[in-house]
Amino acid sequence: MTRKEPIKSSAASAPKRKAQAARLRRMRRKRIRNTILLVLLLVVLCTAGGFGVYKLRGGTFSSPSNSFNAFSEFDNTLISKETQRAEGFAQNLCVVTKDVDLDSVSLADNQSGVLLNLNDKKVLYAKGAYNKVYPASITKIMTAMLALKYGNMDDTVTISQENVTLESGSQVAGFWAGDQVTMDQLLHCLLVYSANDAASAIAEHIGGTTDKFVEMMNSFAAELGCTGTHFTNPHGLQDENHYTTPYDIYLMLKEALNYPEFTDITQMSSYTVTYKHSDGSDASTTLTATDHYLTGEATTPKDVTILGGKTGTTDKAGNCLALLSQNAYGKPFISIVMGASSKDVLYQEMTSLLQNIN
């Protein structure tokens, strides 16, 4: 009897073991099936997510994509943002990336200049566009802009002693301390005759002090993107820390064109200023333009019209000229020549640039 009992127990448990084995197999198959489904779901989600990111980043299927790298993605995001900012800022600008030659133009080694097509945003000529240069009285483009931006042309300005205390030989309209002159008259003297006493009076009137006005000049230059410019005075008399670049002059002159009064005045061949001395007596002076194209001392190429600009001359800056002009088809151009050895050379070089706009 003792031998038969384990046989009965073994025979009775066999179906149970089979049932358990079958249940275990079903559970394994279910786990495997669930695992496979989960993996497939993850693959689908990853693929969809990757495709979405790829398309959002402007990807196409014509070129292979690189594997994801967190540091690379961070760098690329920064570069993308910087590029977007640069494109946004420069979309209406002529962008100079290198020197561009013209067969008819030859500036001396120590000179720089540009010729830019404002309509097509094309660089027709460039030499040392980002070189540091002394602007001399081309500075007065910025002075005039701030006068137009913040000043009232009907204001009467009293000339101070500081306004007339300038270095010997400085170009002046001839005002005396105590003279009564309007802002409009000062602006004309500034742009037509390049009068330094007018520049000083404008700066003091607009800024409260000359130093405050110079701060305004530098702030506005920075707003315009003039990264190579630093002003120390409103007139351009020589100072080692007063400098700019040809490209920055282009940015300033381009901005000045938004003020119609600027081009109206800078096309004038002469200007007569009538004002009162401090004792009430009248004074009158006729001032001749410093631009030789306007006075007829230099001749523009055929079908070229000068619309405005500014001259500048000091011993260290040389002879300089920045012009807005248009060709026979009414298209506008900016041309700049810096550092010419003489007036004659300056206008010869500028004429050689202007001959290319038609």
CATH architecture of the largest domain: 3-Layer(aba) Sandwich
Round the mean pLDDT to the nearest integer and report it: 87
CATH superfamily of the largest domain: DD-peptidase/beta-lactamase superfamily
The proportion of strand residues reads 15-25%
Spatial strand sequence of the major β-sheet: 2-1-9-8-7
CATH C-level class of the largest domain is: Alpha Beta
Going by helix content, strand content and strand pairing, the class is: alpha+beta
Oligomer: single chain
Task: Enumerate how many helices there are, as a single number.
Answer: 11
Radius of gyration: 37 Å
Low-confidence stretches: 1-5, 60-86
Tell me the span between the first and last alpha carbons.
Answer: 126 Å
- According to CATH, the fold-level topology of the largest domain is Beta-lactamase
Q: Count the domains.
A: 2
GO molecular function: hydrolase activity
Keywords: Cell shape, Cell wall biogenesis/degradation, Hydrolase, Peptidoglycan synthesis, Signal
Family: Belongs to the peptidase S11 family.
Protein name: Serine hydrolase
